[in-house]
Structures
1.
Amino acid sequence: MNLDDKQTKSAVTALVKHVKSKNANDLIEDESVIWLIVGTKKIPDTRKAMPKRLNLKYSVLQSDAEVCLFTKDPQKEFKELLASKGVKRVNKVIGISKLRDKYKPFEAKRKLCAAYGMFLADDRVIPLLPKLLGKEFFLKKKQPIPVDMKKSNLKAEIEKALSSTYMHLNGGSCSAIKVGTTALSEQHIFENIMAVVPQVADNIPKKWKNIQSINIKTSDSISLPIYNSLPEEVQSISIKHNGAKQRVEEDEEASDSDEE
């Protein structure tokens, strides 16, 4: 199943126009994140779900966003590793011991969450992080993204993580996915949406059959629809009647009791 190109482009144009109109009197125009809101018919089981990495054509990480990396101990070794591999995009490295000791109070966790635009983590420490970070990171959709610190080409591994977007299955019927910022052109936002949606469908149980709606919005705008599921399709089946085949149309939702 494919999105309607024309409707998607129209929604992107309208959303960007709305943001520019709202910011018309601002001396400094801030970047607004553009979200893809995917509504499902049935809620997926997400008790052990990790963020799903989705490939983009154009990065959605805001230009001024800083990046924090959680690592095993000792953190100094990983700082030196990043430097030796030419990784310059990571602004802060925090080892597990420091995270446990320095960021134990709720207020410390809240400030840490607000200080960085994106969090990465050595995939070996990911199981420890939910308890150490608390709910704030998950409510703000800033769950740390796993990276393989053992990769020979660590720079490429980090850059791939930073240039992707992520689907956080949060136990509800809606998921919000970053697909652009207003710093991107309308065409680039459109191309990101068209690239991401098929990957979203592939990561949802029953795929397109379980998608109710897809909308785009900023954090403070209304939602603009780009896809809505039609009512359950009528299925056509064949049965034999008096030696001949008869076409019978049955609605998926019909029950045996309705025929009695």
2.
Amino acid sequence: MPSVRSSSGRGGRRLKNEINVVPYIDVMLVLLVIFMVTAPLITPGMIELPSVGQASEVKAVPLEVQISEDGKVAVRMREAGSQPQDIARESLVQEVQARLTPETPVVIAADGRVPYEQVVKAMDELRASGITRLGLLVDQSGAPTNATPARR
């Protein structure tokens, strides 16, 4: 890099090609102080959340589709005293739609030893028929079952 000579012609001086960052640091420190002073003065927005007693919860009794290990299918309403009624596997969709109202959810309760493909097939059939409130019933106790895993 060629040196730049002064107009007097004596000695050479090199140009600095660095950015002086000291003014930027000064500005940032001033902004930091301003934010630290004004932050406690800002009032947080208050949100009034509803309490538990204000909302009325209406639960629809779900329709339970039971699939046993041997492939038998039964349908029952999950209310006290309701007994499962065995149905043919082919008439699952018709039986469920006959008992269904728009508010009624459908849950599938499959035995732990049922191959998962059968459960998915039943879910697919029910979804294809237009049933949107569909779920799986599981044991929430966390207790281990004696079920063997499904074959692949």
